[in-house]
C-alpha cells in the first residue's frame, strides 16, 4: 500500500498496519475524516464500514476572462509545496475521463459503484486489477459500476497520455477519471494507493478498503449491495466466492519497503557520502558496500525529488562502470524508470554480480547475443526487473548507457504476491 507523497506522514510498512480512517458527515455534501492516533492492525478480511453521502464529481471549469487568471492556491496533491496553480484553459474540464464521457454521481443512482483510487506505477494497485476486471465482467450487467480515479505520485504520472497508455496496457474496461489536481482524492479524504470505496444504489458510501487484500470480503459486499438494490436477485452458482488467501501471512515473507531513489523528503534511500544535491549534477564514487533498503550510484548523476537522473556523457548501448547499485530482500523486484529527460535507452542489469537468466529475470528483461541482460527503457512506467524462484536477499546493479535515464523507485513482492498478470 502506498502512502502520501513526500512531506506528509511517511507510509507504514506495506500491508502491516493501516491507518484507520473514519468518515463522518460534517455538512451536506461534505465529508470529514477522523483518524485514530495509533495505527491499528487490519486483518486480511476487514473492510471499514460507514454510511455517508458520496461526494459528487467535479463539474467542468468555468471560463476565465481574458484579463484574469485562475485561482492562486496551493496544489492539493498530498505533500505538495504551496505555490500558484495555472488556471485551466477556457471550457477545459477539471478532470479528463477515459473510456467514458464525464459522469456524475447523481446520474449513477440505482447502481452500486466502486471508486478505485490508483496510480499506474503502483505495484500494489497493479495487483488489484485482476479482481477489479473480474468483478466488472461479472456484475456490470446487474448494475455494478467501477470508476478508477487516477492520482499521480511521480511527475511522469501527470500527463493524460501516460494514463491512457496505462489503461490500454492493463486492459481496464471501466471508466477512469484523471484526477491530477487531487480534487476527488481530497473530497474522499483519501491518503493511499490503492483505496477502494463501495457506494450503494442510493449514493451512500458503505464500505472502504485501503490497500490490497480483503478481495473476498469486498466481493461479498458487492453482492450484498446489489441484492439490496434488486430484491430477489440471484447470482449464478458459479459466482461462489472462495475463501481469502492472506498474501501477508508469515509464511509469505516480508520484503523490503518501497525505496524512493530521489530526494523524496526524508524517505530518499541514497547512501552515497556525497548525499543529495538538489538540482545539481555531481560525480559520485561508489562506496564499498550498500545496506538492505538503500542504493548507491557511481558516475555523474543529478538529484531530483522524483528520482536520480543519469548525466554521464555516454552514447553507446554498452555497459560501463557508471551504475546504480541497490540491495533488497524479496521474491520479485520492480523499478519505476523513465527517459523523459533523455532518449529511449538500454539499461544493463545484474543480480549478485551475474546477468539475469530465464530462472530469475523479470518479463521486461531481455538478453543480448553475448548473454548480457538488459531492459529497454522507453515508456515512463514500472518495469518488471527480477522474478526470483523464492524470497531472498540480493544486490542488483543497473548500468545506464545514455544520459537522461531517471530511476524513480523500487518496489517488491513476497512469495504470495506473484500470481497476477505482469503487464
Describe the structure in your own words.
There is one protein chain. With 423 residues, the chain is mainly β. The protein folds into two domains: 21-248, Glutaredoxin (3-Layer(aba) Sandwich); 259-413, Galactose-binding domain-like (Jelly Rolls). 11% of the residues lie in helices and 31% in strands. The protein contains five helices and 20 strands. It has helices spanning 123-126, 129-139, 160-170, 183-187, 215-229, and strands spanning 21-27, 30-35, 48-53, 96-98, 112-118, 144-150, 176-178, 195-199, 204-210, 259-260, 281-284, 295-304, 307-310, 323-338, 345-351, 354-355, 366-367, 373-377, 381-400, 406-413. Strands 10, 11, 12, 13, 14, 15, 16, 17, 18, 19 and 20 form an eleven-stranded antiparallel β-sheet that branches. A hairpin with a 5-residue loop joins strand 17 (366-367) and strand 18. The longest helix is centred in the middle third of the chain and has 15 residues, at 215-229. Mean pLDDT is 85; it is low at 4-45 and 63-93.
List key phrases describing it.
single chain; 423 residues; mainly beta; Glutaredoxin; Jelly Rolls; eleven-stranded antiparallel sheet; seven-stranded mixed sheet; 5 helices; elongated
Amino acid at each position: 500500500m502506498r502512502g502520501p507523497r513526500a512531506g506528509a506522514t511517511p507510509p507504514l510498512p506495506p500491508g502491516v498496519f493501516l491507518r484507520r480512517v473514519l468518515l463522518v458527515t460534517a455538512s451536506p455534501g461534505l465529508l470529514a475524516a477522523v483518524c485514530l492516533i495509533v495505527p491499528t492492525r487490519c486483518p486480511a478480511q476487514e473492510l471499514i464500514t460507514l454510511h455517508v453521502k458520496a461526494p459528487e464529481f467535479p463539474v467542468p471549469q468555468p471560463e476565465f476572462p481574458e484579463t484574469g487568471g485562475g485561482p492562486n492556491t496551493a496544489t492539493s496533491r498530498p505533500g505538495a509545496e504551496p505555490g500558484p496553480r495555472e488556471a485551466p484553459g477556457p471550457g477545459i474540464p477539471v478532470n479528463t475521463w477515459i473510456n467514458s464521457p464525464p459522469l456524475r454521481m447523481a446520474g449513477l443512482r440505482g447502481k452500486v459503484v466502486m471508486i478505485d483510487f490508483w496510480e499506474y506505477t503502483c505495484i500494489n494497485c497493479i495487483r488489484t486489477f485482476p479482481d477489479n476486471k473480474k468483478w466488472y465482467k461479472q456484475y456490470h450487467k446487474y448494475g455494478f459500476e467501477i470508476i478508477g480515479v487516477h492520482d499521480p505520485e511521480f511527475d511522469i504520472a501527470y500527463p493524460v497520455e501516460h494514463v491512457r497508455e496505462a489503461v490500454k496496457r492493463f486492459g481496464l474496461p471501466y471508466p477512469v477519471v484523471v484526477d491530477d489536481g487531487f480534487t476527488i482524492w481530497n473530497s474522499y479524504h483519501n491518503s493511499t494507493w490503492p483505496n477502494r470505496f463501495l457506494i450503494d444504489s442510493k449514493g451512500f458510501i458503505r464500505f472502504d478498503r485501503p490497500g490490497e487484500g480483503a478481495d473476498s470480503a469486498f466481493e461479498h459486499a458487492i453482492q450484498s449491495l446489489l441484492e439490496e438494490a434488486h430484491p430477489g436477485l440471484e447470482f449464478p452458482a458459479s459466482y461462489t466466492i472462495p475463501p481469502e488467501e492472506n498474501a501477508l501471512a508469515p509464511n509469505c515473507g516480508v520484503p523490503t519497503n518501497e525505496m524512493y531513489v530521489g530526494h523524496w523528503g526524508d524517505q530518499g534511500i541514497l547512501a552515497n557520502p556525497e548525499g543529495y544535491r538538489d538540482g545539481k549534477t555531481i560525480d559520485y564514487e561508489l562506496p564499498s558496500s550498500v545496506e538492505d533498503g538503500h542504493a548507491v550510484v557511481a558516475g555523474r548523476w543529478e538529484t531530483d525529488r522524483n528520482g536520480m537522473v543519469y548525466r554521464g556523457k555516454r552514447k553507446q548501448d554498452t555497459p560501463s562502470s557508471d551504475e546504480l547499485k541497490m540491495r533488497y530482500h524479496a521474491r520479485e523486484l520492480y523499478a519505476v524508470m523513465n527517459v523523459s529527460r533523455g532518449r529511449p535507452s538500454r539499461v544493463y542489469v545484474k543480480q549478485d554480480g551475474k546477468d539475469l537468466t530465464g530462472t530469475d529475470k523479470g518479463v521486461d528483461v531481455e538478453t543480448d547475443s553475448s548473454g548480457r541482460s538488459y531492459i529497454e527503457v522507453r515508456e515512463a512506467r514500472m518495469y518488471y526487473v527480477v522474478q526470483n524462484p523464492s524470497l531472498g536477499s540480493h544486490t542488483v546493479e543497473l548500468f545506464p548507457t545514455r544520459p537522461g535515464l531517471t530511476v524513480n523507485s523500487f518496489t517488491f513482492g513476497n512469495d504470495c504476491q506473484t500470481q497476477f498478470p505482469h503487464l
